[in-house]
Amino acid sequence: MEGIRERKHAKIYVMGKRVTDVTTNLFLKPSVLSFKATFDAAFQEDTRDLARAFSPFINEEVNRFVHIHQGPQDLVAKVKLLRRLSHKTGTCFQRCVGWDALNTLYIITGKMAERGDGVYRERFLKYLEHVQRRDLALAGAMTDVKGVRTLRPSEQPNPDAYVRVVEERDDGIIVSGAKANITGIAAVDEVIVLPTRAMTEQDAAYAVSFAVPLDTPGVVVVVGRQINDARRMEGGDIDGVPYMAHHEGLIIFNNVFVPWDRVFLYKDWRWTGPLVEIFASFHRQGYGGCKSGLGDVIIGAAYELAKAIGVDNKPNVVDKLAEMVFLNESMYSAGLAASWEGSKLLKEGGWWVNPMYANVAKHLVARFPYEISKLAHDIAGGIVGTAPSEFDLKNEEIRGLLEKYLQGVPEIPAEERLRLVRLLENVSVSVGFLIESVHGAGSPAAQKIMFNRLYDYEKAGEIAKALSRVKVTVKWPKAPEPRRPSESEKL
Ligand code: SF4
User: DSSP letters of 206-241?
Assistant: First the structure.
């Protein structure tokens, strides 16, 4: 928190006003605390082992959020840690995108080195050491604003619709453009920028990856609004977000200078396809952990609310709870499968997730949180959308009446029921559990593209034909998309 308290050049805007200290700003403070949970986890008994790892790059223990995975066990530990951290925060803790960016660049620059271009590798390893020694909080900025969606970056009427290199100098490059929906962007030490899509030769100026501190001159951050966000300013401890919250924002690079030692991909568009695929699969795997952790919060709130009105053992409630558990554990299982089935992309390591199962995890996450939320709202009752404010409860004129009429079973006071209702509302109707689940790490269509690419339909057809003793093979002039190896398999 000290590290991000005073940043001379950081230009951060929230609801039209410049914020100089994100650690005390009422809007951003819950988000800073959520980031902080990733640091605290390395010192808390229940997460200490999961949140630490040994780094062979600096020969020291590091926080797992800056660790380069050394095997499937590390990938599994990631998913487990994310689930636990969701329990501690009740929201997205924002630090995983930068972590996934580190692991992606480790693999991509490693591949470049294996092909004879070691410059980027050397720079990246120096940067990694800088990050690991300081335990930095990193954002990963990938999603460009994209302008006209049907046009490639170099065809856009606004040439800055994708982040690009506008000038090359002896000491570095000047970049221009913006990245949208960037998780946790106002609360980080540094931001790693990655290209958002596979580029062609014409788009070479857009094939750029680099890292800059957030207070680099020319960087502007505009934080986005969220559902119920004004409650953070109310000063209560029930209605608002007395636990934690996260934020997303737009980061603008207004002719920003980046020294060469922080440039990890420069105009070599051929690497952009593999880079995007590797990063996306890393983040899709992680969703199996963090979103199932939020699912636990919601299942727990629904269960306690059912107890509060004495219906927790009614068959229809028990059935709904079981359905929620099934949906939640499915997301987690896919995240674990993606981890255990991980593979090595570099001679020296470079562990990556199984892309099929990572995409399955994310696709489940794009659907199941809505189902889980619906079931929780069903169990909890309409009060989730209509409960009085905590300030009504604190008003002595009506407190007694509310306590009498909001109470279910006598053992659970009305205020406790209201606390659970608000928790359920704040988590289950949140950007973190709903909208982020659909669009974060790529919208559902992106996963379906990967399913079609990775699944071998011809092979499945051969299996079916062998069993049914069908011998004819039809080759249509325009066959459906045949299996194509993933970008990383092609590396
Ligand atoms: Fe981490 Fe999940 Fe938030 Fe992504 S959505 S940054 S994986 S907590």
Answer: G-EEEEEETTSTTEEEEEPP-TTGGGGGS--SSSS-
